[in-house]
Specification:
The strands form 2 sheets. The chain has a 5-stranded mixed sheet, with no helix packed on it. The chain is mostly beta strands. It is about 0% helix and about 50% strand.
Length: about 110
């Protein structure tokens, strides 16, 4: 079963299906991406890349020490931010062992973000 595929300018929200990758394409440029675990029912593992990049899909079993993999904890409102030179947008892929709701956003359009 395919997960959500969302295209948005700066912010996107959805609910994950267990063990299914969601794809979020944020079209506005920025210097960082933030993923918020809105419901906190399970941790959310995610990766970010630019259009035309490698776009590696995350896995639930991967270690959080894996380069390029971030995790938003299983707590309502938990956030994780990755600096990302997304001049031409950002492709974010998310997965979880549960069904948490999430919000993904471009969190800065300045280098200090």
């Amino acid at each position: 079963m395919a997960g959500n595929s969302i295209t948005a300018r700066r912010v996107a929200s959805a609910t994950l299906q267990a063990s299914t990758v969601d794809l979020v394409y944020l079209t506005e440029g920025g210097f960082a991406v933030t993923v918020t675990n809105d419901s906190g029912t399970a941790p959310i593992y995610w990766t970010v890349d630019h259009p035309g990049g490698v776009c590696t899909a995350p896995t639930v079993a991967a270690s959080t020490g894996t380069v390029g993999l971030w995790c938003s904890a299983a707590s309502p409102g938990a956030q994780s931010t990755a600096r990302h030179s997304g001049q031409f947008g950002s492709i974010v892929q998310l997965i979880s062992s549960g069904t948490p709701s999430y919000t993904v956003n471009v969190s800065g359009n300045q280098v200090s973000a």
